[in-house]
Every structure is written in structure tokens, then in C-alpha cells.
Amino acid sequence: MKGQIIRIIRDLHVVSFENKEYSCKCRGKLRNNKVVPLVGDYCMFDKDKLIIEEILPRKNEFQRPPVSNIDQGIIVISMKKPDFSVNLLDKFIISMELHKITPIICLTKEDLCTKEELEKVYDYLDYFEKIGYKVISNKNIEDILNILPNKTTVLTGQTGAGKSTLLNKLNPELKLETGEISEALGRGKHTTRVVSLFELNNGKVLDTPGFSALDFFEFKEEEIRNSFIEFKKFTCEFKDCSHTKEKECVIKEKVKEKEILEERYNDYIKFIEKR
Ligand SMILES: Nc1nc2c(ncn2[C@@H]2O[C@H](COP(=O)(O)OP(=O)(O)O)[C@@H](O)[C@H]2O)c(=O)[nH]1
Ligand SMILES: [Mg+2]
Ligand SMILES: [Zn+2]
User: Fold this and answer.
1) How many Cα atoms occupy the beta-carbon half-sphere of 71 within 13 Å?
2) Which atom of ligand 1 is nearest to 183's Cα?
3) Gap from CA of 27 to ligand 2 centroid (Å)
4) Which protein residues touch ligand 1 with a CB less than 6 Å away?
5) Which residue's CA is minimally distant from atom 9 of ligand 1?
6) Residue 182 dihedral angles phi and psi, to the nearest 5°
7) What is the CA(175)–ligand 1 centre distance, in A?
8) Distance from the CA of 94 to the center of ligand 3, in angstroms?
């Protein structure tokens, strides 16, 4: 049967199958194949013999933390403390797009804002919703639960944004430390933690808030361009228009007409220059 590895402790691989857990060992042949199993791997396993026979091909894989097959990432972004920033949000969105992870934007700390401050941020978020991203809030746990079924989900975002607080709400057993000083103080304690997925609402969630895939270096300019999803709605006259120095560029036109958010376009330029 096909299961998913949700925890690895030395040579014990805990496989989840139909909401039950099976502690398995790997078949010798698998080890010789040089496949090192990761948390998140889908595998073919024998639930009576408790043996993993085959690791199935991965959709994506990461080193820090070592996990695979991530479907979606909840980008936890605060309205204040730290202040909301389109540029930061874009960094997370584009890196997720590049790694084939569906980004979901989750706002926090709305309670710290005045009505005017909220409206300004909501205007930006309306744009992100309009181009196709899901926007939710940590106030509505139901909305978060609703995106989990049949997916493997991670939380990502800036330090202090509220990731640990949110994970604790989703799984009180985690008891993650929260607060500004916790990261520094908690470091020693957390290094021995085993990375694992926990089951919630028929989905899997990574139990650590430290997920980040913030790099553009290994990607081509074209891949970054395609990660700005709203650009794909328009076709420039030049077939391989880079939307930079070309004269007749529809994207640049749409930025002028304010149909494409100027901050997004500026981030595009920044990200391709960073490579
Ligand atoms: N006012 C307010 N504070 C929050 C909210 N979410 C988290 N916090 C606080 O923000 C601080 C940082 O949260 P934490 O979960 O540790 O952030 P992390 O670094 O992303 O894991 C903590 O003091 C939390 O209590 C929220 O929605 N509103
Ligand atoms: Mg934290
Ligand atoms: Zn163009």
C-alpha cells in the first residue's frame, strides 16, 4: 500500500496510512539504491511486515528542514510588529512558486492596527486575491482547517510574525515557544527535535515553523518571470520579452495603467537582478 513517511527516528520510519501509524524499516535494496528517505516521502510499504519497499518520486525536496512533497505553504505575515511589507510577501510567494508550493497568505496581528492601517494593507491584499491567491487570517481557524485536507502544508514567514503561535493553536501538543526572545533562548533546546508531520483535518502539517526556501539563485530569469502569475495573463509583442528594456511591453504598460501593482513589478526587477 501507499503511505507517507511522517517521522524518522534513526532507522525507524513512521508511515501514515489511512490515519494509522506504522513504524517501518527500509528494505535493504532501497538503501543500496542510495535513496535516503525523507519526512514527507510517499512510499510503497507492507503494513504487515512493516517494511518500506520503495520511495516514490518526489514533487520537491528541501534540506532545511529535511522534508519532501510539500504542496502548500502558509505565509504568515503580520500587519504590525514586524510591519507588513509587499516586498517581503513577494519574496515568500515567488520562492514558493519556484519550488512548486502553492502559497497561501495568512495575516496576523490585525488587532494591533487602526482602521486606517488595516485598510491600507487590505488594499494590497485585495490585489493578491484578485490575481489568484488565497488570503486568510489567524483569527479564523476554520479557514485554515479548510485548506488542509489531502495536502502537506508548511508554515513560513518572518521571525515574530506569529508562526509558532498559530502552530500551537493548530496542535496544542507541540507547545512551541513564542515571543520575541524565544528564538534565541530556545535554540539549544530545539536542535534535538525530530522533524515530523502531524495529521490535521485529513491533511499533514509540518511541526516546525522554521521552513524557508528563500533563494532565487538556482533559478533562471524565465522561471522567476513565470512565477509572477499575473504577468502570464498578458502577451507581449516580443516572444521572449523580459519586460525590462523592451520598448513595446504590455507588462510595463499595465503597470502604468495600475492594472499590475507597481511594487510587484519592482520586485520582479529586483529578483532577477539578484541572481
Ligand atoms: N497582538 C497579537 N500578537 C500576536 C498574534 N500572533 C502572534 N502574536 C505575538 O507575536 C509574538 C511572536 O509570535 P511567534 O508565534 O513567536 O512568532 P514566530 O517567530 O513567527 O514563531 C508573540 O509574542 C505572540 O504572542 C496576533 O494575532 N496578535
Ligand atoms: Mg517561532
Ligand atoms: Zn514585456
Assistant:
1) 13
2) 19
3) 37
4) 76, 108-109, 111-112, 138, 157, 159-165, 178-179, 182, 209
5) 162
6) -65, -35
7) 14
8) 19
Q: Give the residue, out of 107, 110, 141, 165, with the most ligand 1 atoms within 8 A of its beta carbon, to mutate for a pocket test.
A: 165
* Residue position matching grid coordinates 502559497: 103
Atom 1 in ligand 1: residue holding the nearest Cα: 109
> How long a stretch of residues is the chain?
275
Quote the ligand 3 centre to 90 CA distance (angstroms): 20
CA separation (Å) from 148 to 6, 37, 71, 78, 268? 16, 24, 10, 21, 30
Task: Dihedral sign for Cα 238, 239, 240, 242, please.
Answer: positive
Round to whole Å and give the CA distance between 127 and 142. 23
User: What's the confidence (pLDDT) of residue 121?
Assistant: 97
pLDDT digits (tens, 9 = 90+) for 107-134: 999 999 999 999 999 999 999 999 999 9
Alpha helices by DSSP H, listed for the chain, are 28-32, 86-98, 115-130, 141-146, 163-170, 182-190, 221-227, 250-256, 262-273
User: Which amino acid type is present at position 192?
Assistant: T
Residue 150 grid coordinates: 489531502
The pTM (predicted TM-score) of the whole model is 0.94
C-alpha cell at 212: 524557508
In the chain, what are the domains? 2-57 (2.40.50.140), 67-206 (3.40.50.300), 221-273 (no CATH)
Report CA(54)–ligand 1 centroid distance (Å). 41
Ligand lying nearest the CA atom of residue 186: 2
Mapping DSSP to helix (H, G, I), strand (E, B) and coil, where does residue 82 land? coil
pLDDT tens per residue across span 17-36: 999 999 999 988 787 677 89
Taking Cα atoms as reference points, which of 33, 103, 50, 109 lies closest to residue 73? 103
- Ligand closest to Cα of 168 equals 1
Sequence letter at residue 274:
K
